[in-house]
Each structure stands twice: as C-alpha cells, then as structure tokens.
Amino acid sequence: MEQLAILILDDEKRLRDELEEFLRRKNFLILGAARPSEAFAKLEEESIDIMILDIKLPEMNGLEVLKKVKNDFPGIEVIMISGHGDMQSVIEAMRLGATDYFQKPFRLADIEHAIHRTQRFVTLSKQLQRYDKSISLLTQRLYETAGAPMIGQSKAIREVMSLMEKVARADNTSVLVMGESGTGKELVAHGIHLLSDRKTKLFHAVNCSAITDSLFESEFFGHKKGSFTGAIDDRAGWFEIANSGTLFLDEIGDMPVGQQAKLLRALEERMVSRVGSHQKIPFDVRVIAASNQDLEGMSANKKFRSDLYHRLSTFIIELPPLRERKEDIPLLVEHFLGHFASRMKIKTPKLSQEALHKITHYAFPGNIRELRNLLERAVILSEDGMITSREIPLNNHFGNPNDEILLKSYDLEECEITLIKKALEKCKGNKSHAAKMLNISWQSLDRKATKYGL
Hints:
Rossmann fold; 5-stranded parallel sheet
C-alpha cells in the first residue's frame, strides 16, 4: 500500500511535534505547519492525502482553511481538531467536508484509527485518478457520445472491453451481446460502434419488443407514399437510416418468429424493398443484437429461428452481472454519486461505511441500472453531505428462511453453487433446460459451471 502523506496544521508546537513523532512511527509521511499561509505553500509543493487541521489558528480560522482546502484541493481528506467542544463548529466542519472531528485532549490512537478510516476514501480517490489517467479511447468516447463511461477494473469487465476492441476491427461481423437486464448491453454496442470505422456514421437503436407485426416492414424497410392508410409520405426504414453505420437490435429474443424470417432475409440479401415498392435498396449496416434470454436454448425449442441465431451470433460478448464483478462497485458508486451531485448542483455526498457495506453485500438483480437508480435516490435524500444506510433501502435477505438451501449458508456464492447443482440435477445435466430454470443464458450457466468446477 502507498505511504500516506499527512499535513498537520496546528499553531501549538508541542501538540504538533507529538503528533508528528507518533505518526512517523506508524510509517506515514508527515509534514507540519504552524500557520495557514505555511500550510497552503506546502499544499502547492507536495502531494498531500490527509490534513489534520486545528480550528483556532492565526491568520484565519480552521473552518475557513477547510473551506479553501476543499475548494482548491478537493482530493484531500481533512480531520478537524479543536480545544473547544462547540457543536456548531462540529456541524459546520462536517458540512464543509471534514471526515472526522476530535476535541482536545484526544488519544493519539484515536487519531490513528481516524486516519485508517479515512484511508479508504483516499485509496478509492487514487484508484479513480489512475483509472482516469489510463482511460481508454473506448471509455472516453462513450462518455462524450453516450453520456456514460464503461467503468470497472475487474478481470471480467476488462475481458469484455478487450473483446469489444477486437470485434470493432472486424467491420461487418455481426455481434450478439448477452447479459441480464441492466448490465449495459446497449453501452457495449455503442462502444463497438465508436471503436469501429463506422464511428462517424449513425448508431441507431431499436427495441424489438415494441414492434407490432403490422408496423414491422414499414419500420425496418420503409414505405412508399400511399402504400397503406396513414402513409402520407415516402419514408426510409431503419436499414436505410443506419446505412454505413450500426443498427442495434435490443431485446431480439422478444421478436415474433414471423418477423424473424423477414429480418433474416434482409440480412442475408443485404437489400430491402420499401412497402409498396419493388425496387431493391442495398444497405451497408453493421448489426449488433442483444438479449437477456437464452437464444440458443430458445432456438433448440423452436422459439427462435436457429438460422437467425447463427446469423446474429458470429461473435458473442457476454456481460457479467454486477454480483460477479463486485470489485467494480466502489468505482461505480463514486461515479454515480459525482454524476448526480453535479446534475443537482450540490457537493458530492460521502457514503458511510454501513451504507457501502449494505451496497457491496447486495445481489443487485437489476444490475447497474438498479445501482444507478438507488444512488440517484440516495443523493436526493442525503443530508449534511452524507449518505447513511437509511438512504439505502436494500433488503439483503435471499429468500424464505425455511428454504433448505439457505439453512446451510447465507453466502451468495455458496447459494449460487447449490442452486446450479440442483438445477442441473433436476434437468439431468441438460444445460439449456437448467439455464432456463435459473433464468440465465446458456453461456452464463456454462461460465458459472466452469468457474465453480461443476
């Protein structure tokens, strides 16, 4: 772990020297200052992580110093100390962004514990800084174009980003993005588009579950004026609109079989005819489809055309659910808190230890979308710059306490292993049927089975 740099600003030399000596023995890098002007000079010269700040000072009081530090050096965490137990000063210090407050005389061990508590925020801040510095072209473009970056340092999300970058170079290859609802499938599709040679052309997203049979051909292929009631003008279809760009077909598993046949023919011929016209219109479109369903299992059960499945699944990217990339949660939390605070024009609130524990121990069936909505609500409800467990209404109970699986353990991974084993046993080893029973894709079940050695 990196050595923390701590600046002590206190005009009382005896206390400052005592603190410096104690903290140096704990392997911290310590700097001292007796006056605010001296402290600000050191802040300009040195990279400081934590500041221990007295309230009563010459030149300006500690609350004014705190306000200036948080404004000019927002990455520095501040621990306040004072010889007076003024509750109003405590409240004001916490409102201005202090992480802790101690009244003199205090135990040196209490200061050390406060530093270790604050270290979590410092470490996370440094991780985010490193992440920002090494931000990939993909993430930067997604943030600028789609308004949401791909955030994560887990092995699973790095593998997804690597696959995106590779398939983006294969300009005409169809891609199928699989994953549970809320995992960011459209973001992946948008990222592939932005990394490809088609990036300057249109990225057009279509929700396949919302298209009725009567409108399918008109929407996808276009129509001529007068071809049906309501066709008051010539209209281009989605293949023409997205020509030279990318057409994203979301929730492709919800498309009726009759529509699937028409879509397959257009993909095979690379041409469409508008409704009411026999003229063939060629198109050059990269198709990316997405589904939260087991399309392979559906095709085996004749619920999805197998020829369309194979046409769409030349290259498959499977997005892991949030519960399988929990190490990314702190980064996602920090991003969303900053995003919503900026949008609401307020200072980014901090998350209490209890609140973070509650979030990181929750399974998030709604994945990133659920986390995002949860944090937006929490920022709205936050008071005094802090989000507590009160603002995080999550139920971490996994089901009926009388369930035989839960009698063994409340550990999520153990429960998942047990459920997979039982599903495979019930389906006599048939992964497609077991995946359907578990409400996950066949690929996800296969990956989990490999991960747990089942």
